[in-house]
Amino acid sequence: MTIHTTRHRLALAGVLAAALIPATASAASFYIIESSPARLGNAFAGTASEAGDASTAYFNPAGMSRLDGSNITAAAHYVMPVAKFDNNGSTTSAGTPLGGPDAKTDETAVVPNFYYTTPLNDAWSFGLAVNAPFGLESSYKDNWVGRYHATDSSLSSLSVNPNVSYRVNDRLSFGFGVSYQRVDATLENQVDSFAACFAAGGGLATCGSVYGGPGNASTDSSAKVTGDDSGWGANLGFMYAVDPETRVGASWRQGIDYTLSGKASFDRSGTCTGDPFCSGALNAKSGDIKADLNLPDILTLSATHAVNDRWTLAGDVAWYGWSTLDKVKIVKKSDGSEVSTLQLDYNDTYRYSLGVTYADGGPWTYRGGIAYDQSPISGKDTVTPRIPDGDRTWLSFGFNYAVSPMSSVDVGYAHLFVDNVKIENTTQGNTLKGTFDPKVDILAVSGNWKF
What we know:
- The chain is mainly β.
- The chain has one domain (about 10-450): Porin (Beta Barrel).
- Helix content is about 10%, strand content about 50%.
- It has helices at about 1-20, 35-40, 55-60, 195-200, 205-210, 270-275, 275-285, and strands at about 70-85, 105, 110-120, 125-130, 135-140, 150-165, 170-190, 220-245, 245-255, 255-265, 285-295, 300-305, 310-320, 325-330, 340-345, 350-360, 365-375, 390-405, 405-420, 420-425, 430-450.
- A 14-stranded antiparallel beta barrel has the order 1-3-4-6-7-8-9-12-13-16-17-18-19-21.
- The longest helix has 17 residues, at about 1-20.
- It is elongated and about 80 Å long.
């Protein structure tokens, strides 16, 4: 028993540390749905109606009532995104071509998950879900054509979510829980020193003589904004067995509102340092900052139906309340003056998925699935290179191998076909115009133990 307890603590400690690694989102915007290799194999169909392993503690805690004994699932998802940008007429504030090469971001990330469930008595069960439900990471060279919009961006999260479930009878169960979540964000971009000079009242002639005009990469300064916060949210779920072959379920997860606190700092170019207008403008924006970040509620409806002893079908419809995130306005704590604003104007979205599972009667179980995941982006003028997000079509497959009656391994893989994303967004007077061509591959593995 001591050996088991120590092993479980070490596994949890490792996940708690790894969960703060910035991840590249591969569901809509920067939500990370990759929280189960088993569900990945079905393109996350049946998340609220399946209860095959301890990951149900996150997707729908009501499902914990269907698990026998104590269960542990430890998983990792390797996310491999690529987003290439093709410039198509980007311009400076003067209407001249904006210089700089095309670029791509291809930052890979590991998304960890850890789940534990155990019965408390015949009616009540307890579970713990530890994962990283939101995150992003993108990186571009400092001289690329979109440098004034973004260079490096990261958002990492940690969620610790204890849950309980209550079995009403053999058909119906309910679950509820609370989540402690922490987020850390870093946003970097280049600063057009000409634009900073002009905004500070330097005048067109004065700033033009110093910098040679807008969009001059050789005189660029750079900006870095960091912030973090933590908060609490709730989640609810139910699961109902219509008959021995068919289950339905629903889950709701509250979006947490954060007020990030941190700093804005600027690395001034030599030319900007010697210019009182540019230097003064950046000095005025430096210092302690805050920014509100309102994350979406998520509502999921699911169904699972066993066609026979070997074939099972599952489906999901999920709603994301992204319209709560219209903008991220970064202001100075001292006087409330604006440092920067990330205008998003997000729309609410839906995700649809269908999956199939085949059990061969032996140790192998095979899975496949397809999903369509809408992007919350409202238009090309609100696209940001920090999250070049388009509508996504998932194609997934995976398997489970039962090593013994008490342990198994899940492997899942998905390729995401992402629609091209057009951008025509103006920042610091410079307009980035062109097309992103994204795609994502995901490979995941987990170990499952019963005891």
